[in-house]
Write a structure and sequence with these properties.
single chain; disordered N terminus; about 0% strand; mainly alpha; disordered C terminus; about 525 residues
Length: about 525
């Protein structure tokens, strides 16, 4: 498959967004596809092998050599100069250090890369000569990815391969960046300040899609190389000659393989498939495209109120339970009061008499109350997926909501505000640490993992029900009661019995990034990309 033959996502209805937001929007589908390549799924499950990592480093060397040569050559170009940070970001020297660690001083004679990698490098050199402004797309997706999800993959690599003292891990180290989050903010600000014509902007957006497509091809080619490599010492030359062979499918990680992981990593693993499905519900796709309407947001708030009321009542009741106490942060995380403030803003003081929720939301709330009484340790799964999602992808959706609906002064947006959390990233680290310290039996742990999958399934049903309500609502002022009565006519999906994929059969990986009001995962799984 040639990348140039794939039609890039059309940059429609994005003219008012910053360039960084536009790139996120047009690469959404490619991002999901890249996350689900066989190589990335294996990596994200914590199953990375030495063969995988070494071959990946070989391709990264080829790619970054081409990218950084092009950036150096065009460092004074008006589109490149604002985002040219060689001292902070350059990766080539670090990759070469890693390659020397694994292959020895004659590493240049030993490394090999697949055809897809060579095509990627050729494209980078080509635009460096013909369209330097397109380098913005590649620089952004690669470097900010290395500073984001790439850091998580670095820790997985270190743990999986037992690498000590940072040996062989220089690629993941950025000594020139004291704060990754502050630097990413600076980078996006610089990037969004670049002045380009509409034609150039559309070209950059198309190039961003192309960048993801190239990476997907590289991942696929590397997986094919690995599928015919019997062990790490097999000749790379022989491996390359067999590249065209079909890649063998790998089975998902088993509970036994997951047992050594932290609880937070296990939840990420077993919810991977559900996570992708939730991201691709019609309601979430509309939201992520920046097409959220007032009707969508108000109905969403109604369901959030029902869900958080049940969750926080259960957490309060079980605040001294040994599985709940370590992750009980009402002052920092509680959402109910904020949601009620938003509902009053939109519906008035009598909002309780006006709001309506679909059947799926009521089932979700019922489940939360049920486990609060019968299995309080299962609250860990719901608390983690909801609150850390609100602190991650939910913040992005908050900005989309504000911009799409023209909300001023934070009115109607209290749900997205966490005044008790001064640093979202530091707090999430604390939360995961507390959560991973919880002592549970193997049976309880498996129950928590199953409950995490159930949480996503319940959210998917809520999304689907809300979309059905919206599809029969001609306008935002139509009676919610009428809407609810129509919902039952078409609600076959919502009436299905909830089916939980067994963790014994289905374990996936780390979930990425960013995802949504109901998802607790930041967009990481790409590793090489920033979304």
């Amino acid at each position: 498959m040639e990348v140039e033959n794939r039609a890039p996502a059309a940059p429609v209805e994005l003219t008012d967004c910053d360039l960084s937001e536009q790139i996120k929007a047009v690469t959404k589908d490619s991002h999901v596809r890249a996350e689900n390549t066989e190589l990335m799924l294996s990596y994200q499950r914590g199953q990375v092998t030495m063969a995988q990592y070494k071959l990946l480093l070989c391709s990264l060397h080829e790619i970054y050599q081409a990218l950084e040569e092009a950036l150096d050559r065009n460092s004074n170009h008006p589109s490149v100069a604002p985002i040219y940070f060689p001292a902070e970001l350059a990766r080539l020297e670090s990759i070469e250090k890693d390659l020397e660690h694994f292959y020895g001083q004659d590493w240049r004679e030993k490394i090999v890369v697949p055809a897809a990698t060579k095509r990627y490098a050729h494209r980078l050199r080509q635009i460096g000569k013909e369209n330097p402004e397109f380098l913005v797309a590649h620089s952004y997706t690669r470097y900010l990815g290395d500073l984001s999800g790439g850091q998580i993959l670095g820790r997985i690599t270190q743990k999986s391969l037992g690498l000590k003292n940072g040996d062989g891990l220089s690629f993941f180290s950025f000594p020139g960046v004291s704060s990754a989050n502050l630097f990413k903010q600076l980078y996006r600000s610089r990037m969004n300040s670049i002045e380009v014509t509409e034609e150039e902007r559309n070209g950059v957006l198309e190039e961003a899609v192309r960048a993801f497509e190239f990476n997907i091809q590289v991942f696929d080619d590397l997986q094919k190389m690995l599928s015919v490599t019997q062990n790490d010492s097999q000749s790379h030359t022989t491996t390359q000659s067999k590249l065209a062979n079909d890649a063998e499918k790998r089975t998902p990680a088993t509970p036994e393989q997951l047992r050594d992981c932290d609880l937070s990593e296990q939840i990420k693993a077993v919810t991977k498939d559900s996570h992708v499905r939730a991201e691709n519900t019609e309601l979430m796709l509309s939201y992520q495209r920046g097409q959220v309407t007032m009707a969508q947001y108000k109905l969403l708030l109604c369901s959030l109120h029902e869900i958080y009321q049940a969750l926080e009542e259960a957490l309060d009741r079980n605040s001294n339970h040994p599985s709940v106490a370590p992750i009980y942060f009402p002052a920092e995380l509680a959402r109910l009061e904020s949601i009620e403030k938003d509902l009053e803003h939109f519906y008035g003081q009598d909002w309780r008499e006006k709001i309506v929720v679909p059947a799926a939301t009521k089932r979700y709330a019922h489940r939360l109350r049920q486990i609060g009484k019968e299995n309080p340790e299962f609250l860990v799964a719901h608390s983690y997926t909801r609150y850390l999602g609100d602190l991650s992808g939910g913040q992005i959706l908050g900005r989309i909501t504000q911009k799409s609906l023209g909300l001023k002064n934070g009115d109607g947006l209290s749900f997205f505000s966490f005044p008790g959390v001064s640093s979202a990233n530091l707090f999430k680290q604390l939360y995961r640490s507390r959560m991973n310290s919880i002592e549970v039996t193997e049976e309880e742990r498996n129950g928590v993992l199953e409950e995490a999958v159930r949480a996503f399934e319940l959210n998917i049903q809520v999304f689907d029900d809300l979309q059905k309500m919206l599809s029969v609502t001609p306008n935002d002022s139509q009676s919610h009661t009428t809407t609810q009565s129509k919902l039952a006519n078409d609600q076959t999906m919502a009436c299905k019995t909830l089916q939980i994929p067994s963790i014994m059969m289905k374990a996936s990986h780390i979930f990425r990034l960013a995802v949504g009001l109901f998802l607790a995962l930041a967009t990481v799984s790409m590793g090489m990309y920033a979304l």
